[in-house]
Amino acid sequence: MAAPPRPLSKTRSWFSYFRYEEGRDSPADARNILLVVATLIATVTFQAGVNPPGGVWQDEGHGHAPGRAIYASQKHAYYVFLISNTIALSTSILVIMSLTHRFPFQLEIFAATISMLVTYGSAIFAVTPKESVKFRYVLTAAALPFILRCLLQGFYKCRSMVSN
């Protein structure tokens, strides 16, 4: 059983009070909190990709087509939004998949998250005008968290082999 939290003193800030402390906080509780946070981030970023800020054009004319993102008319701002949103979604998916590794129904969780990523990609491709974004950058942004994690794992493995 975890020890009760120490009372907040005048010299101790609220930030340090809520910080994770090994011995006081259980790893299972930390994992559960991380799962909730990652799920909230995935939910928000998925929704922002499916329903982009500003909505979509309802009519045709003035150089736009119905169903395309209004925000895409600001090419650079929309590009930054799309890349950042995609990185956030992919990172949260990576955290969810990592924290649920070897859980019951892992295959189902994997299938659901992959399906969610495909749905996200399909939605952003549908609402984004072809000329406003180079989709290879969006796909690279989606793969970036997974690539970085693999590179870090490889680095740690090589480092441990060298030190032994």
Roughly what is the average pLDDT, rounded to an integer? 88
**Structural category:** mainly alpha
Strand and helix order: HHHHH
Radius of gyration: 21 Å
Largest sheet: none
Quick summary of this structure?
The protein has 5 helices and no strands.
Blueprint (SSEs and pairs):
Elements: H1 14-18, H2 27-50, H3 75-99, H4 106-127, H5 135-163
Polypeptide structure, described:
This protein has helices at 14-18, 27-50, 75-99, 106-127, 135-163. The chain is an all-alpha fold. α3 (75-99) runs antiparallel to α4 (106-127) and α3 packs across α5. The longest helix is centred in the C-terminal third of the chain and has 29 residues, at 135-163. It is globular. The mean pLDDT is 88.
Key features of this structure:
single chain, 164 residues, 5 helices, 0% strand, globular
